[in-house]
Amino acid sequence: MDPINGAEAHISRPGPRSSSNLEPQGGLLRRINSLPVARISRTATASLFTRTETWGDAGPSLNHSYGPAKGLLVFVPIGIAAGVCGLPDVAILILNYLALASLAPFITFTVLGLSNGVGVSSGLLRAIFGNATELIVLGGSFLCASYGKDHQMFSKTRTGAMSALVMVVSICLTIPTIMSISNKESVPQEGRQRNMLILSHGTSVVLFFLSISYLAFRFQTHHKLFNRDHGPTRSLTVLLMQPEHVTTSPLILAFGFLGAMVCAGICTNYVIRNIDLTVKMLHITKSFAGLVLLPLAGNLAKSFNIIRNARQEGNISPKTANNLDCAIRLIMTNILDTLLFIMPLLVLLGWIIDKPMTMQFGLFETVVFLQSIVIMTYLVQHGKTTYFEGFMLIGTYVSIAAAFYVRPDVAEGGTNSWK
After folding, report:
1. I need a surface site. Which of 60, 108, 150, 209 has the fewest CB within 10 A?
2. Angle in degrees, 0-180, between the axes of helices 135-146 and 363-379, rounded to the nearest 10
3. How far apart are CA 394 and CA 142, in angstroms?
4. 271-293 pLDDT, tens per residue?
């Protein structure tokens, strides 16, 4: 398996030679360099972008993996022009929504390029600009990877370690909400807010040190656990299939990143400014728009690639990470990006600049979030899956989306009302 392109490499091996035909010193290296590497089968081509860990992997992948989103880039100038020209609110929101769907993976790609060779810091850099994923991505991956089979295997060790961390972090994040609800009657409002702030700060500090430990565990002490291929032929395959050089300049990447961030900020501003009138015209709630529709915009292209490339035919070695392994790892990584990095970072930043921010969420959202995490972590603990488990996850996501669609928004005063 080609670790760079996910393709099977068919390399002709020389036949046995007699001792009289032994090559002089250095002949072996010349023979390795002369092996015919052009005979690469693309039958098992996988998405480079969804499996990348380094810039060396991501560089050649843009044209292949960014393909589904490249066509949507045309909506970036159209969406901005629609906002400037004052088109109807629904049109502005839809056009800028599609623009965000194309900008999100491009921003991630440029971050990967700019973080080349940074090591542990690249994980933090990607986490800051990462995106949360949904149940439907894991369900679609299970369904795509296992249909037509009795079951599909994946690494129990890798997924078990990451899913356990996701569960621990999720429980830490729900504790402030549970404490707030339990003390609602017995503690005055002022004391409850002070206690919530102290607990949120303490939880953020704990999660911050846990995130540092996770980065050290993943990229330094146990980095081999997260390699896609532990086979004995990995070194030779990497030598033969590695691109000679990367043609994209860091300066171009930096300008691309800044331009994408500016466009994303403008498009997001138009989406937020027009969401109130749009939800009224479409008769949907802000919760449904903010927790179901908008997250899909950031994950559309990447989620499509993860699901599309989750299936891998052939025999899977227990020491080799297949496409489904990569899909599960990316899903878990994106969840950790939000729970372990972004949320604690926002609370700590608010603490530093004296803008109090707590980890207090609504009861309904907390229960839905924790149940989703429990379902996901349970299904990835066994090291194998079937297409029926994919249907179950997709059904769970549809049920959650339907609940947010029919649930009325909660006003600031604490009563339910339709917006």
Report:
1. 150
2. 20
3. 10
4. 777 777 777 777 777 767 766 77
